[in-house]
Amino acid sequence: FLEGYDTHWSEWTKETKKEYTNLSAGNYRFKLRAKNIYGTISNESVYEFRVKAPWYQTKWAFMVYFLLSISIIWFFIQFNTRRLVLQKQRLEDIVKERTSEISLQSEELKKQKSEIEIQKNLLEGKNKEITGEKDKTDQAYNNIKILSEIGQKITATLSLDSIREILYENISVLVDTSDFGIGLYDEKTKSIGFENYIERGIKIPYKECSIADEDDLTNWCFYNRQEVFINDYLEVYKKIVPNAPYPKRNSPKAMIYLPLIVNEKAIGVLTVQSYERNVYDTYQLSILKNLAVYVAIALQNSESYTEIADQKQIIESKNHQIEHINKSLMDSINYASRIQSAMLPEIDKVRLTMPDSFILLKPRNIVSGDFYWFAETHIQNIRRTVIAALDCTGHGVPGAFMSMIGNELLNQIVTQENITEPNLILDILNKGIVAALKQEQTSNRDGMDGTICTIDWQSRTVEMAAANNPMIYIQNKEVFEAKADKMPIGYVKGSKSANFSKTIIDVSLPTYFYLFSDGYPDQFGGEEYRKFMKKRLRELFFEIHEKSFEEQHQILDTTIEAWKLGRKQTDDILVIGFKV
Known about the structure:
Elements: E1 2-3, E2 26-32, E3 45-51, H1 59-155, H2 160-171, E4 179-186, E5 191-199, E6 202-210, H3 217-224, E7 228-230, H4 233-240, E8 254-262, E9 265-274, H5 282-343, H6 347-353, E10 357-362, E11 370-379, E12 382-392, H7 396-416, H8 422-436, E13 447-456, E14 461-467, E15 471-475, E16 478-482, E17 489-490, E18 503-506, E19 511-516, E20 524-525, E21 530-531, H9 534-544, H10 549-564, E22 573-579
Antiparallel strand pairs: 1-2, 2-3, 4-5, 4-9, 5-6, 7-8, 8-9, 10-22, 11-12, 12-13, 13-14, 13-17, 14-18, 15-16, 15-19, 19-22, 20-21
């Protein structure tokens, strides 16, 4: 028990020591008792000791702290007092400077006030001038608005008669249009023709001005591409056209001729004429010049529309011809498709021999370069089934022609010559393709890849030979790949004849076989737009091989369609699956 620290005796313990930490400064009495095995408690032993305070808690330390605090406060007061004195001096200097500036500004304001009075008088005079200009501006704005409305109406029509009528109706309220016409230059007749010309308010169906008449103001305006503005023809006509004849008694006295110009080329003339003198002014001339621009644009649009309409008619005619040709081609291709379908073995007949099977054929186009072939033979009472999956060079019509050659050669080799060993079939098929396409004499390099299987039902074996395309088979839930020879059926560079190898597979256990062209694994698609790949196809075969073959066919079809994501099919697709 530590007197001055503990509040009660500690628990009995066998420890011969007692530790105390963080004891405050002061006097302490440590009391100790002992107890033997019989429970007898000894007398108390007392040990007195003193814990001294650390130096930073002594009286001298607190005196130093007090003196330091007083010094810091004194220095702070002295510093702040000095700062305030300096700040006061700066403020007094700023006040003197601002007072001087205000005095100068006051003088400047007096001068400005005097100048403002002068400017005010000037502005009042200018205001009167602006008011007059405003009236002129309002009038000009109204003119622009009128011109814009007329221009929009003119350029919105593609008919020359409509352009002429719209212009005549609108400018008749602005200028004297006793005579009015729009003449267009005709390259064939070398003349400027005015259809529906207005003369003294009466419409004349046609009026023509020959280019050969050099003394006519219409020709002068057209050739020089300049306006003619005359308010008294008798006074000025000789100045414009020196050789012009003396005007007739009832001819117009005032007239305006304006060239119609498109892309810096004159295409005609716009004219208004009056039988009174001095009826036109420069304001009316300006309006007519602007309208002439609209008329030229409208005429160009009309001409362009006519050309476009003619071109459209030509294009429609060509499209009709193309549609007719395309229909003929499609009819021919569809007929070729029917021929190819008739050439291929009927799937129902294949299933009679091999009920556990499917054939997935998806041509890229209407006809296919991929084809399958099937035959059942009974040679020396040995039943054999030959099934092939072949991929011809190209797709569409070229591939279909190759498939017909391949089909005919297989019929000869297996059906007529009774050759059923797949490697020999490929050897002879290879020679047949080289000969049929004359590849030794020409640069033709067409051919085909493929896989041929022969099922020997008596020996329970499957013989396989392949050109470039391997075969996948699954036995006892294990996936195998029968390798293909790395050469095509057809021309092989550096070799006139190819010798294909043969693989023999024991099928005493149930075995699932899958033959396929490169169309399925090479199909681009997926979110990253990559090939489907043979590895993924192999995994898919394993996942579905225990399902019915009808389900397998459906899964393979829907899987590749989903993989394409609506994109175009890359190549013909052929997959054959069967169980032995």
